[in-house]
Design goal:
By secondary structure, the chain is of the alpha/beta class. The protein contains eight helices and seven strands, in the order βαβαβαβαβαβαααβ.
Length: about 250
C-alpha cells in the first residue's frame, strides 16, 4: 500500500520541474491527482505517464492568478474523486533579478500575483473542502529566497517571504481543525525555470550571484518531491507550520 493510498491531491504548477515530479510520485504512492498549470499539452503528458504506471489523475488547464481557475480545480477534484485531502502550492515565477529601484509595477504585480496571491486563493478554496472531511495537508513550495534576502530580485524575495508567513498563519489558524500547512524552501533546483534564469538587471544579477560559489550543489526535482511526499503523508502528522530547507546546506553558510 502506498503512503498516500485513498488520498486526493491537487498540485499547482505541475507542467514541469518540481510540480511534475511531485504529481508523479504522489500518484505512484496511491493518490488520485489533480494537476493544474497553464500548459495543457505538458499536463497531458504527465497524466499519460501517471496512467501508464497504474495511477489515476486528471489535468485542469488553468492559472493560479485566476480565481475562477482555482475554484474550478478544487471543484474538479471533489466532483471527480469525492474529496480533497492534500494540496501542493507549487506554481511560481521569477523576477528578472531586478532590485527595487529597477522594478516596475507590472513585474511586481505579476510576481506577487502568482507567488503569493495565487497560494492564498488556493488556501481559501481548498480549506472548506478539507474541513468537510475532517482535515487535510498543504505543502507550499517556496524558496530559500523566503529566508534569505540576496539570491533573487526584490519582487521574488518579497513574495517568498510573504508566502512563508501566509502558510504558517494557515497552520496556526486551522490546526484545531486537523489541517496542516508546511513549507519547503528549496535552494537551487535543476528545473526548466532555474536553468533558464534570465536577468535584465546588471546590478541585480551581479549582486545575486555573489553567494553562488557557496552552494554545495543543485538539487533535483525528485528530491523535492520526496520531501513533499513526507510532509503530505500521515507520517508527518505532528509537523505543522514548519519551513524545511532543502538546499544541500547552502543556507547554512
Amino acid at each position: 500500500m502506498g503512503r498516500l493510498e485513498n488520498k486526493v491531491a491537487l498540485v499547482t504548477g505541475a507542467s514541469s520541474g518540481m510540480g511534475y515530479e511531485i504529481a508523479k510520485l504522489f500518484a505512484k504512492e496511491g493518490a488520485s491527482v489533480v494537476v493544474i498549470a497553464r500548459r495543457k499539452e505538458k499536463l497531458a503528458d504527465l497524466i499519460a505517464q501517471i496512467e501508464a504506471n497504474g495511477g489515476q489523475g486528471i489535468a485542469v488547464a488553468g492559472d493560479v492568478t485566476s480565481e475562477d481557475d482555482v475554484q474550478n480545480a478544487v471543484k474538479t477534484a471533489v466532483q471527480t474523486f469525492g474529496k480533497l485531502d492534500i494540496v501542493v502550492n507549487n506554481a511560481g515565477i521569477l523576477d528578472k533579478m531586478r532590485p527595487v529601484t529597477e522594478l516596475d509595477d507590472d513585474l511586481w504585480n505579476a510576481v506577487i500575483n502568482v507567488n503569493l496571491t495565487g497560494p492564498m486563493r488556493v488556501f481559501r478554496a481548498a480549506i472548506p473542502e478539507m474541513e468537510k472531511i475532517g482535515g487535510g495537508a498543504f505543502v507550499t513550495v517556496a524558496s530559500l529566497g523566503g529566508l534569505k534576502a540576496g539570491i533573487a530580485g526584490s519582487a521574488y524575495t518579497a513574495s517568498k517571504h510573504g508566502v512563508l508567513g501566509l502558510a504558517k498563519n494557515v497552520a496556526f489558524m486551522y490546526a484545531n481543525r486537523n489541517i496542516r500547512a508546511n513549507v519547503i524552501a528549496p535552494g537551487a533546483v535543476n528545473t526548466e525555470m532555474a536553468t533558464n534564469v534570465t536577468g535584465n538587471s546588471e546590478m541585480g544579477s551581479e549582486r545575486s550571484m555573489l553567494g553562488m560559489g557557496t552552494m554545495p550543489r543543485m538539487g533535483e526535482p525528485e528530491e523535492i518531491a520526496r520531501l513533499a511526499l513526507f510532509l503530505a503523508s500521515d507520517e508527518a502528522s505532528l509537523i505543522n507550520g514548519a519551513v524545511v530547507t532543502a538546499d544541500a546546506g547552502w543556507g547554512a553558510y
